[in-house]
Design a protein that fits this description.
- This protein has about 725 residues and is of the alpha/beta class.
- About 40% of the residues lie in helices and about 20% in strands.
- The chain contains 27 helices and 21 strands.
- A 7-stranded parallel β-sheet has the order 11-12-10-13-14-9-15, sandwiched between helices. Strands 16-21-20-17-19-18 form a 6-stranded parallel β-sheet, sandwiched between helices.
- Helix 10 (about 215-250) packs across helix 26.
- The radius of gyration is 29 Å and the shape is globular.
- It starts with a helix and ends with a helix.
């Protein structure tokens, strides 16, 4: 174990308390190993300038540029002093400002023609991009002492630019890396030698030195190739071990029973299944017929028929003597699933009741807000086996709920459920039940292999006939207020044509603590000074202003379940013209007559969430309209995101864009909270081949040596990736 210890050394020991504290608090770096894995984001060549035209707004950046001019301005009747410096790179300009006592040193040093590295946060002032009070480091040798030292400090011509923070510039991080870099020689190599040699990858210590202090661009490429493989392989081994363990678990096989409920149900279907539904059903039925638990992810766009596929799987399990449970994230959705399942099944859902089919079963609903008597009856139906299908919220997970023989768990909208909850429900079976996870968020193949790598994936990519197109437009409320007025006119026109509309806001209002669910600005963007727009306020403004005279109602997560249901029922029945709501409408609400949606502060929602919301309109025969209202600056990443959503209806394409714009580590961190280190060089989007190859290698290694006894270094790397709780998390799946 001695070899690992150098990587576990606390940074405080080598760098001093103050620097170590900033690294821990702002960059989450605590040990020598953490810092050695904090790779440069990119590299600048000393002689070359950064493109100033492409700087992202509101982000902390490091640029190499040349001073074009500098002048001191007086204000406040000569009492205040401001230094304005203009940088140039030949293509664009960037303004720097220094105030007060901070003017003296830069005024002396930042002379026209000088070159330096500057770091600061990009903001807009008077429609110009600027950095206020940036830190800088000179890169030319005008001032012999300091500049020569700076040039020497950065060995070679490539300057590493590190992910930095306001409290610690890239070049101070580079100095800290110099201090710990000798420890790279003690890195434990997780890749089996045969794999490393077979793929021509450089040894790990060498890769670490090359990525931090490259002499050439080839050094960077070789280092990245190697580190990419480490990340992909270690993660895929963790997932492969997880899948291997699943194949060792026993489960009751639930094979099809000819002449049972499933056949009776299929005979009543008024349409034929799409090819996609048939293919996916075959995959699921095949899994159900085996004696170890199915773990399958079923993904498909809103309206692609996932519920029908899941229902047929549930019927097969009931035919085979088991029970099926469907878990929904909200009461509204659980009730809606219960309604649509009982409607689809007709008399088959009335097993044991007068007029019910003799082949049928009971379909019960179980939610937290049910009355005592109804709840008691539902619990009784489950424990006796009278009810073959139960649909509910996390109320299904409580200890009081007992099943006769739970054979299949269907989880709707994976990202709303904690793993502990999924696990608690699974522990209710005599043996581990089969598991089917459904999501309407399209997930690119590589992400499915990485994030949901412990699940096999089925994709429904055909939309049933009859869905109407949806037109989407960005409404820049700040630059062009008349566009917003036109948006409300469009809503009124839709209503006058006999249709209905949604208006979505990120926040409930009445000084609620936080935006409901995820209506927060995306990572790396500061929230505007004002809070996000709220349902209660917008509803009031619309009723008094542009939509006066229309029937407007509100809907949000803090309302009583009965009130929510009442509003939704009346909206579905056409008794409400405009529904002003939070994202509670994001999943499962189906009102074919709703044709328009206006999303306020749209930049505060994620790409896939906007896509989900938009899927609520255009569900009938009339075309849908989605207007994305935003005050974000035209050049901001937020506006780029919105334009991407407006430009395509392809959910898979949008999920790629979403990933490219967010750091992928965040995606993995949220979905796979079993993995501690976010991905650093592996790009889930671009490195599909590496991930697929790593998955194959991982499966081979784990099949031959499930406990990795012959690969102690790989075990060590796994332990570093998965701490104890997270190892358990993966074990629970």
């Amino acid at each position: 174990m001695e070899r690992v210890s150098a990587f576990d050394e606390p940074l405080k020991k080598l760098l001093g308390g103050a620097t170590a504290k900033v690294m821990a608090e702002h960059l989450d770096l605590h040990t020598v190993g953490d810092l050695l894995h904090h790779y440069p984001r990119r590299y600048e060549e000393r002689g070359r300038l950064t493109a100033l035209t492409e700087l992202p707004l509101d982000e902390h950046v490091t640029v190499v540029a040349q001073v074009a001019d500098a002048r001191v301005m007086m204000f406040n009747n000569g009492r205040g002093k401001r230094l304005e410096v203009t940088l140039t790179d030949g293509s664009g300009r960037l303004q720097l400002v220094f105030f007060g006592h901070g003017v003296h040193k830069p005024h002396k040093e930042l002379l026209p023609g000088r070159r330096a590295m500057f770091a600061g946060k990009v903001s807009v002032f008077n429609r110009k991009m600027q950095l206020a009070h940036p830190t800088y480091q000179l890169l030319d040798a005008h001032d012999e002492g300091e500049a020569t030292e700076a040039v020497d400090a950065f060995a070679g011509q490539l300057l590493p630019i590190y992910p930095a923070c306001k409290q610690l510039d890239s070049w101070r991080i580079a100095k800290a890396v110099d201090t710990v870099l000798p420890s790279a020689q003690e890195a434990v190599d997780p890749l089996p030698p045969s794999l490393r040699d077979g793929r021509g990858l450089v040894p790990l210590p060498e890769a670490l030195v090359r990525i931090h202090r490259p002499q050439t661009k080839a050094d960077i490429a070789a280092a990245r190739d190697r580190l990419r493989w480490d990340e992909a392989f270690v993660l895929q081994v963790a997932l492969a071990r997880r899948r291997f363990a699943d194949t060792q678990l026993p489960a009751a096989a639930r094979a099809a029973v000819p002449g049972g409920m499933l056949d009776a149900f299929d005979a009543t279907l008024p349409f034929t299944l799409t090819d996609g539904q048939l293919k996916v059903t075959e995959e699921i039925f095949g899994d159900l017929a085996t004696e170890h638990p199915m773990h399958r992810l079923l993904q498909g766009e809103v309206g692609s028929g996932k519920t029908l596929v899941a229902l047929r799987a549930m019927l097969q399990v009931v035919d085979a003597g088991g029970q099926a449970a469907m878990l929904a994230p909200t009461e509204v959705l659980a009730q809606q699933h219960h309604r649509s399942v009982t409607e689809m099944m007709g008399e088959l859902a009335e097993g044991g009741m007068l007029g019910g089919s003799d082949k049928g079963t009971k379909v019960v609903l179980l939610t937290g807000s049910m009355g005592t008597a109804a709840r008691r009856q539902a619990l009784l139906d489950l424990v006796t086996g009278e009810a073959g299908i139960v649909i509910g919220t996390h109320a299904l997970i409580e200890d009081k709920v007992k099943f006769h023989d739970l054979g299949l768990v269907v989880v709707d909208e994976q990202h709303r459920f904690g793993v502990e909850q999924r696990d608690a429900l699974r522990s209710k079976g005599k043996q581990p039940p089969h598991l089917l996870v459904m999501t309407a968020t399209p997930i690119p193949r590589t992400v499915a292999m990485t994030v949901f790598g412990d699940l096999e994936t089925s994709v429904l990519d055909q939309l049933p006939a009859g869905r109407s197109p949806i037109a989407s437009h960005v409404v820049p409320a700040k630059d062009k207020p008349h566009f917003l007025s036109r948006a409300w006119e469009r809503v009124r026109e839709e209503v006058e044509n006999g249709h209905q509309a949604y208006v979505v806001c990120p926040r409930i209002g009445d000084d609620d603590e936080a935006p409901e669910k995820k209506g927060k600005p995306a990572a790396g963007e500061d929230a505007e000074k004002r809070p996000p727009l709220a349902v209660t306020e917008i509803a009031e403004q619309l009723a008094k202003g542009p939509l006066a005279g229309l029937r407007i109602e509100i809907l949000h997560g803090r309302m009583q379940p009965d009130d929510k249901d009442d509003v939704m029922r009346r909206f579905a029945a056409g008794q409400v013209d405009v529904l002003v709501a939070t994202t509670v409408i994001e999943v499962g609400v189906n009102v074919p007559n709703a044709t328009a949606m206006v999303i306020m502060d749209a930049d505060r929602f994620g790409v896939s969430q906007l896509h989900q919301l938009r899927g609520r309109v255009g569900r009938g025969s009339a075309p849908g309209l989605c207007l994305l209202v935003s005050e974000a600056h035209e050049a901001s990443p937020a506006r780029a995101r919105l334009s991407a959503v407006a430009a395509t209806l392809d959910g898979f394409e949008l999920s790629r864009i979403d990933l490219e714009q967010r750091r992928e580590g965040d995606v993995l961190g949220q979905a796979q909270s079993g993995v501690r280190s976010s991905l650093r060089v592996l790009s889930v989007i671009d490195d599909e081949e590496v991930i697929a190859a790593a998955r194959e290698e991982a499966v081979r290694v784990v099949a031959g040596d499930p406990s990795l006894e012959r690969l102690p270094e790989l075990r060590t790397a796994l332990d570093a990736l998965l701490d104890k709780d997270r190892e358990e998390y993966l074990d629970k799946g």
